[in-house]
Amino acid sequence: MRTLQNGRHDAIGVDIIASPFTHKEGSIVDRRFVADCMRGVDAVIHTATLHKPHVVTHTRQDFIDTNITGTLNLLEEAARQKIRAFVFTSTTSVFGHALTPLPGSPAVWVTEDLRPVPKNIYGATKTAAEDLCEWFYREQGLATIVLRTSRFFPGDDDETVKRHALDSGNMKINEYLYRRVDIEDAVSAHLRAMERVPEIGFGRYIITATTPFIAADLIELRTDAAKVVRRYHPNYETEYKKFGWLMFSTIERVYVNELARRELGWRPQYDFESMLSKIKNGHDYRSPLTRLIGAKGYHSH
């Protein structure tokens, strides 16, 4: 919303709580509210969701209401009003159990061809919502793009063991190698999708920082990730030593953004190399938008 409002777009922000970027307060579960919000709109960017951390605070029915019924409400109103473009923010969490390799197996090369195997109600409802988006394209002709975003939140990691093992900056920069995207790049992916969706019709894309790794690295990434990183970035340890940082001993998966770059014309600006350059020159590794937004946490309701 910050980016849209600063650009040429006449954007309407919808949320369940008030904010400087919220123009209409309400829930996408409320069909009448959704219909009211959709009047005069030509494109929808649907980011509303219950997230993984809500699994311990909300019921399964809550997830179905927001992530599935809410998405259905938006799709039906978008189709009814013949909206030009619908962009749905999904998540790489839909892959679930498919992201964990068997013992002794190579790391998982995660492309759009990998079949999702959701491991919780969050992943299951996001997968179902993706399928609704595709169905509305097939049956209603609603041009829709699904963006499976990797991690972009600036707060602390939600995995307790990792959070206690490494500091937040160390973890995040490590993750740009294989499972993280900067907020600015996530925003630019949504804008590109909004522009390209009428021509594409329907597509699913992984949105993540460009990895330096190739498929031939997958076996060694499981056994000695630092050695593989050293091969692509020989001097990374010099910069890491300044902060007492460490590389993960093993990397189990690698998200690949090649399809999004090729078909959307998306050009992510932030990756592991750019992060190293920033810290080497004494700069904050975070993008200006990431610093501006800060850590927001998650809605409690």
Written overview of the protein:
The protein is an alpha/beta fold and 301 residues long. It has a single domain (2-293), classed as NAD(P)-binding Rossmann-like Domain (Rossmann fold). Helices cover 43% and strands 11% of the residues. It is built from 13 helices and 8 strands. The protein has helices spanning 2-6, 31-38, 60-80, 121-140, 160-165, 168-175, 183-200, 218-223, 225-232, 236-241, 258-264, 272-280, 288-293, and strands at 14-15, 24-25, 43-46, 85-91, 108-110, 144-149, 202-207, 253-255. Strands 3-4-6-7 form a 4-stranded parallel β-sheet, with helices on both faces. Strands 1-2 form a two-stranded parallel ribbon. β3, α3 and β4 form a beta-alpha-beta unit. α2 (31-38) packs parallel to α3 (60-80) and α3 (60-80) runs parallel beside α4. The longest helix has 21 residues, at 60-80. 38% of the residues are buried.
Question: Which descriptors apply to this entry?
Answer:
301 residues, 4-stranded parallel beta sheet, 8 strands, 13 helices, alpha/beta, Rossmann fold, two-stranded parallel sheet, 11% strand
